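Task: fold both queries, return tokens.
Query 1:
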Amino acid sequence: MSWIVTGGAGYIGAHVVRALASAGMTPVVLDDLSSGVAPFVPEGVPFVRGSILDRALVEKALRDHDAEGVIHVAGYKYAGVSVQRPLHTYAQNVEGTRIILEAMEAAGVSNIVFSSSAAVFGTPDVALVVEDTAKKPASPYGESKLIGEWLLRDQAIATADSAHPLRHTSLRYFNVVGSADPTVYDVSPHNLFPIVFEALLEGRTPKIFGDDYDTEDGTNVRDYVHVGDIAAAHVAAAQRLADGRPIETAYNLGSGDGLSVTQIMDAVARVTGIDFTPEIGPRRPGDPDRIVATGELAARDLDWTMRYTVDEMVRTGWEARKAASL
């Protein structure tokens, strides 16, 4: 039996695929390559090219590959841009998730791990976010991820007495960085690490978007978590679902303390050896001041832990991006 990884040719999805294979599970990639990269799919891993909005294709992939479950990573992940493209964001993230659940029900597939986001919390009024902290998304992206969680909840209730009751969990995280494989790197034009790395490679000065947030140094504070740790948590969740063990409906994959954009910039300069003073630009819409989550529940159930220091996060991401330029 296999696990279908939607978005498996993307930065996070490709790491999940490798982690599944390392755990002795059988990954199958489903990706339309709208933001994924075909060479990120490892040799020998089945690759279904197509959109999660294609209901027939999703169901066929589930049936053809005898799927045990889905790890749903695909989606439109840009909070700031979602403010300008709300309809596109909802189509990809809400309708896409609905179609996957519909295809799963038709194919008799009952396990799903959903890549959600800490963006469901918006700008929380607590220092440390826990799973039941109030959900107040600050962007269409965050709203779409919260609706995705609702869809899973409602489908689980609806199928509770069926032959294949839905078992699910949602993993919430924010800034995923670094690399656990030198052939896979973050290609997003909107994420902090690739923006900074591209600027340095092109001889430009990196930019900070806003330094007037309500934080200690005026720049956003976030959970920065290594992609290798994120991938391992997805696999642990899939294993727990497959084994029929109890599982929470949602887990925060948080660092517990967070880092500011300025602290990240300092680490980049330190690790790369390139001395620079960031330029200050305007805020990006939809970006909250601070969001830091605890990972205690995930540590209990999914072996979640922060295995990388900030310098190691920068180093692995920088080395993978430089390797891609060779």
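Query 1 returned. Query 2:
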Amino acid sequence: MTNRNPAEQLGKIEAELRRLGLLVGPIQPAQVVRSAFGMGEMPFEDWLTKVFLPRAYEAADRNQWPQTSQVGTAAIRNLDGQADYAALITLLCEFDRIVEAL
């Protein structure tokens, strides 16, 4: 059965980012970026930990989710072919499905 709780899915995404060593320590406030997914400003992996995750937790705290999410699609574009990131890509794609089903 598919998880339907985006906040619970965020916990799984956070755990995977930590397992991969991409997130260490507490989650910091979201950094400001001027481009979608931080393109041209920072690596996608940094965007996930410094922008996506803090903003997504803020959305969870307010229970105000966007109508659409494309973080999974962005993950495929940026991380595809890197076997270590397969589970993360799957979790992010599932996050998209959960958010869009709300």
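Both queries returned. Flag for query 2: DSSP finds four helices and no strands in the chain.
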